[in-house]
Amino acid sequence: MAAAALGKIFLLALALVSVTAERRSYNGYSVLRAKVDNLKHFKVLSTLRDESNFDFWSGPLYGKYADIMASPEEYPELTKLLNSHGIPFSFMINNLEAVISETDTVAKTQAAMNWNEYFSTEENYAWLEGLAQNNSNVQVLNIGNSTENRVIKVVKISSGPSNATRPALWIDGTIHAREWIATTTATYAINQLVNNASAHRQILDNLDIYILPIVNPDGYEYSRTTDRLWRKTRSILANTTCRGVDANRNFGYKWSGEGNTINKCSLTHQGAAPFTEPEAQAVRDFILGSNVNWQGFITLHSYSQLWMTPWGYTKDLPSNYQEMMRVANKSVAALKAVHGTTYEAGSAANILYESEGTSRDWAKGVPNITYVYTIELRDTGRYGFVLPPAQILPTGQETWAGIRVLAAEIAGVAQD
Length: 416
Hints:
metalloprotease; disordered N terminus; protease; metallocarboxypeptidase activity
């Protein structure tokens, strides 16, 4: 009996070693910040982003910077190119694997839901189902399935009678797999609305809130188990060994063009056509197919600390831009009041970069939702996509303060 038990332990240990061994190592990888001081720098870096396999974590942002990841083999090529064009650069991260180890979840204990660590899709879903079982104002809705047949779950939170005129707010996270902080921020909002409901009673009495914590569960799990920096879905593409589509370039509004690529191996590959990805389809079909008065749409991303309106496909501004900015500025001020974190507000193409086929632009361009925002969460590049667990809770706290401003505006609730 003891021998059998020891055998099982040995096999389990062997399996864990096998899983760990399969994870992509980023030992020796670095993230460089290249300054974009002029139009020449911007054009050089934009071409590099679109025509190479370098992973641009951010940018290029004209007049600001571009954050670029490089392997030890790519580093000489990248620095040679930057130097040849007189583009100044500095290190944001010297050894990426060392930073990733701070968010390693392989050895995580089975703790109750909290905002001090990152949880798997299955663990998040179990928590959501538990909330629904124990709270009459919470529903878990299965709105579709991913490529690998994972369920895509939306939580509806409401304490009033739903009807076609009652306003509703949509919030989603982790359409890009490596942006784990988006999921924890979404679940923090759910926790506030459910387990601290008395503090938000007026909002809940006058507003339905739908939250999808993990748009891209396949990519998220692949990021957790195999490649921490995976961004796309896990769909199988024709005539290539590369996998996945950038689901946030796959929405059928101003699809293809700036910020996208037909290179199937690119991180921003938009797919062969709009809505090829079941994850994008699920969001589209639920929003358009439900008898809901959508008044707000937030999609959570990282990183850069930006609160962005449409449009991304053009630097032109939506017709209600001033109204969206009025609320965005109030939200950013409320966010800053929590921990002093500074966010910039503006239209996506003007403060980030041009991109087409995004869920944000689709939400404004097709269902014509009144208030539409992309929130790029912490930080500004010190950790980038691999934000340490110590920053999960403060990110959730401050972001919820900003989102609550929008929710109160839509619900018609007076604010201090």
